[in-house]
Design brief:
Shape: globular
Number of strands: 2
Radius of gyration: 12 Å
Distance between the termini: 39 Å
Number of helices: 4
Low-confidence stretches: none
Structural class: mainly alpha
């Protein structure tokens, strides 16, 4: 059954478990990294996917801890 991940810190594990998508606000700030991660997953390039995920994890954590609307708004300024 297809499923989507909605938890930023679990995105890599969710994709590895078969998630077909990721509900996140992160592309508003780091779209290129998010797209590259998704393409790496689709291409079964797990080493690359892991590297891309951990490059963005500090920002993903910051977004969650700072409150989604406020951090995205600040990031877009």
């Amino acid at each position: 059954m297809p499923f989507y991940n909605g938890c930023n810190p679990l995105a890599l594990e969710a994709f590895a478990a078969g998630a077909v998508g990721w509900c996140t606000a992160a592309p508003n700030l780091i779209a290129d990294l998010n797209i590259a991660l998704y393409k790496a997953i689709l291409g079964n390039e797990l080493r690359s996917a892991r590297e891309l995920f951990y490059r963005q994890l500090p920002l993903l954590d910051f977004i969650l801890k700072g409150g989604l609307p406020a951090t995205i708004k600040a990031g877009l300024r």
